What does this fold into?
Amino acid sequence: MENLPIPAVVRLPDGTYTYADHLPAVRPEQVGPQVVHQHIHQAPPDRTVQRLALGSGIGAGTVAAGVYFGPLLVAALTAIAADLAFLAFLAVVLTWGVVTLVRSVGGSDGRAAARTLSKSRRRR
It folds into this structure.
C-alpha cells in the first residue's frame, strides 16, 4: 500500500476538482451543454422457481397459477395477521379498562378480597 502513487488533484475550468488520472488525454473545449448518455438496466424477475417447476414436469398452467396466486396468498395472510393484531390490541385495552374500573369501584370489599387472595397465594 505504501508504494502506490498518490494521484494528483486538478482544478477544471468550471471550478470543480478531479483526479488527474480520470481526465482524457486531450480535452476538447465544450461549445454547448454536455450530453450524458446513461443507460439504466432493470434486472428481469427471478424465474428460477418457474424454470425448476417446468423442468420437473408440471405444466405451464400450474406455474402461472403459482405466479398469480402466490402474491394473493401473501396479501391475504398479511391482512389476517393485521386483523389478529388489532383484535389482540383491543383485548388488551378492554382488559385494562375493566381491571381499572373494578379497582376504582370495588371499595373496601374488593380490597379485602384481593388481600385474601394474595395471602392464599403466598401460603402455597
Summary: The beta strands are 9-11, 17-19. The longest helix spans residues 60-105. The longest strand covers residues 9-11.
